[in-house]
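Exercise 7. Given the components listed, write out the predicted structure of the assembled complex. Treat all entries as one system.
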Amino acid sequence: MQQKRKRRSPYPTWFFLPAAIIYGTLFLVPNIASLWFSLTRWDLFTAEFIGLANFRQFFSEPFLVKSILNTIIYAVVTSGLKTVLGLLLAVLLVSPIIWRGALRTIVFFPVMVSTIGVGIAFTALMHPTRGAINVALENAFGIIGPGWLTDPSLALLSVAFVDIWKGVGLATVIYMAGVVSIPQDYYEASRIDGATKVQQFWRITLPLVWPATITVVTLSLISGLRYFELIWAMTGGGPGFASDVVASMIYKQYQAGFYGLATAGNVVLFILIALIVLPMTWWFNRREVEA
Amino acid sequence: MNRDIAKSRQRRRIAAGVLTMTAFLAVFVTPFIFILFQAVKDRRAANRLEFSWPESWHFWENLVAVIEARNYIVLLAFFNSTIITVASVTLLVIFAAMVGYVLSRRRTRFNGIVMALVLAGLMIPPAVVPTIWVLQGLGLFKTIHGFVLIQVAYGLSFSILLFRAFIATIPRELDEAAIIDGAKPLQVFFKVVLPLLKPVVVTNIVVQSVTIFNDFVNALYYMPGRENVTVQLTLFNFQSQFSSQYNLLFMNILLITIPPLLVFIFFNRQIVAGMTAGAIKG
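Answer.
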């Protein structure tokens, strides 16, 4: 009475197949192929091996180097402010404030809206002479506002500001879930010991929302490094190359027909993300274990 | 005296609420009011870019003008975007649920690799030009079905994580009972498990459809050309074409904002649940 045949599992591994085929063909294969094509001069039909020339170009052309710096600035500024503001808003929105539901809805709505639409609206609001922001500044304080998107030293930060405006709701929602899951006992016990609200925030809330912090920082950093929609809608990388990031440079090189260089840009972006995100995740997780 | 304290505390709460609401309205709602005002103004008034109450309302006129622009391209774009969104989300939900199901039910030798690939999908930027090369090789470049598959490939990671976390909370006994009754794996999955996943399916549908409907960059790369326009591409192209007709440009923004707004009104709770799911595990 031995088992006749090994019974098939009711959870067959071929359930992975449909997803694996699509993911493999359209995500994995291109990414692996990019390692080769980034070493070539390429027009989609013939690829000529040129070694590391694309990478050398990426790190020697001033505007390409600048785009790498801009990417880091943009990601750090947006991610940092989304994290800080998201936590503060979350603490506010889980406190027993009136109209709490409505307030939560208001913060989150911009997350859902078309980035291009938001970009166009803010481009109009930031118009150097006619835009509502500068008109308001002049009427209220008599200040002549700067050219938010036309001043090369401001353009990138202005776009980053809009990015924060649009994305802070997501950070807030993630933090809200984190803050709610902190047991109330901690707050009660500390209140009996005479802790102030500020002390409670630093000593209880901040350490205990650590997992949410990891998520918010990682998510916003990765998206800050990768996306260029808003930049494309608002400045197109300009004025000049002042607000270009690696992702928008990749698109520009692609448009210009430099496919090998564009692909090298992709590899650079990947390495950049890995260099920033992997050590950070490792550090975050170690701190979590210690805590 | 206690009542006085309670009363002053109550008053402070109301004051804090009013203050917060005012700040929130000023920061988060004003830009939307600006969009609305711009969309209903006449051409001259809109081009002044003033943030002011419209002197005259031209809602219908502008709406019709936007829809008729460039031979009804907005309608075509809405049609394409709807098809893309519905098709991609359907495939995403089914395929991701299948992966999440086996991943959380059975320890296979693939589990480690699958999880590594899922995380890689969240982190690694897609290699766009080689993807175009692959799509061309398959004859799928600039086609709607090719674009649907792209959206599925890019969305899988997030959906799989959502499903895996949720399926782990469903007792195994349920599917084991069906297996003992002789159900085949596909039957177990579609008839027993999938119906139990309704909350996470709704979350997936809502989050992914908003993401895909709003996606611009992928459309920019993979859907060049006139007949395959999506709503976001049309809006982007209108930016240069309508540079002297801000009323129409903003009417288009308004139109594009309506579908997510509807989704948001009906599924507010699921969206928030979905955005935070898995977030707390770290």
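Discussion: The longest helix of chain B spans residues 59-105. Chain B touches chain A through 94 residues (CB under 8 Å).
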